[in-house]
């Protein structure tokens, strides 16, 4: 009788195992910084090679109409994490060095959604969404609220961007390796006339500034803002990429047995562009191209890490950028002088800061080995849609008031035949100028509140160029937005402007 009971128990257990739900897929979002549509060899550049990202594209879906939601970093990241257009909230422009957390803790974010779905969550790399409460970050104490208060289990951050002080790592709630006897002070005015800056000690700089980046000197480079102290916590610019890879692989290893969500936030292309010594000079185009090769190496290390852990066939990897390219963004790093024939924007007009296509249409790739059939897709997808799409992927219901503008395009991301992307997309600049791009099918409306378009031609210095307040383009015939059809098609322009106004006024599109 005992043997019969044991046999029955074994059969029942076996049935339980056989019908157990498969583990939900891991999700990794790799967000590049200032990477243009034409900055990768899989998107057409012949100036240098990006073999690992090319492999990602060859094994997945490469999108030709993949977008970020804004043409600068803070609003794109805000929209990615919240699933809501950043222009709906105040203070989503580029965050200053001591900005408080830009995301209200009452907002349910993408990390919260993944945690509800049973995932471990982490963000590694550039943050630039502020830390701390109303008074800003307490660099010498607990840096909260921050990522851990909006859905992440752990974080390892560059707290702002590397052209803004301070140059320290943040691990969860604290500055890493901070000596309490050498506290950090951060401010927008020099603490003393003798404080070393890019103005009074310009001759000592290893990378000169061209505009704006001339305050506190760290590692031979002057930055935006002033700081003192924290010497044991300061990092070398050259080591950032290695540190992001190291911390990401550690997180993946620690969570290999349960589903995880990793937001890998690269900084490589953002100024100051300082590649590690082993990448310096690997291209003929200067440091800007060298750091693209460094970014490619980072992607390769993540892919190798997945292979080593046996997770490649249970991990959706999504590669994107936070905005389009820029050449001279404040430092003399030969980005313009050595550009040659390279088209960072892939031939599109505009770049970072602009609502032309070059500002928000970027590389966008999905790979899930064994699930996604490799190919190329022309469907419109956007970083703002990842929230709803990942909720669909993980069978996680969305709260009614969350992800207000995030559309479920999961089938398109997976490359399913006949799957559709989004039909409408609002593009914004930094949010401070009231400039919008609005794509509806092949039609694109531009509205410039101040009749100014920023950075219209990416290969030249940043420019404010006079443009008509309303412009209308047909991207199927005119992808470089040169032929303004607003006067020839006044009804279409009026209809699209009315729809844009309605989207803004309604407060949500989902």
Which keywords apply here?
Alkaline Phosphatase, subunit A, four-stranded antiparallel sheet, 510 residues, 20 strands, 2 domains, alpha/beta
What does this structure look like?
This protein has 510 residues and is of the alpha/beta class. The chain folds into 2 domains: 26-177 and 234-413, Alkaline Phosphatase, subunit A; 424-506, Arylsulfatase, C-terminal domain (2-Layer Sandwich), CATH 3.30.1120. It is 22% helix and 18% strand. It contains 10 helices and 20 strands. The protein has helices at 2-18, 51-58, 73-82, 110-116, 240-254, 287-309, 357-360, 386-393, 410-413, 490-506; strands spanning 26-32, 61-67, 120-126, 154-158, 170-171, 174-175, 185-187, 217-218, 221-222, 226-228, 260-265, 315-321, 365-367, 375-382, 424-428, 435-440, 443-448, 452-454, 464-466, 470-474. The strands form 5 sheets. It has a 10-stranded mixed β-sheet with strand order 6-5-4-3-11-1-12-13-2-14, sandwiched between helices. Strands 15-16-17-20 form a 4-stranded antiparallel β-sheet, with helices on one face. A hairpin with a 2-residue loop joins strand 8 and strand 9. It is globular and about 65 Å long. It starts with a helix and ends with a helix. The model is unreliable at 1-19 (pLDDT under 50).
Quick recap of the structure?
The protein has 510 residues and is α/β, with parallel strands linked by helices.
CATH superfamily of the largest domain, please? Alkaline Phosphatase, subunit A
Largest sheet strand order: 6-5-4-3-11-1-12-13-2-14
- Determine the N-to-C terminus distance: 60 Å
CATH class descriptor name of the largest domain: Alpha Beta
Shape: globular
Assign the structural class, choosing from mainly alpha, mainly beta, alpha/beta, alpha+beta, or little secondary structure.
alpha/beta
Rg is: 23 Å
**Largest pleated sheet:** 10 strands, mixed
- Tell me the fraction of residues in β-strands, as a range: 15-25%
Which topology of the largest domain does CATH recognise? Alkaline Phosphatase, subunit A
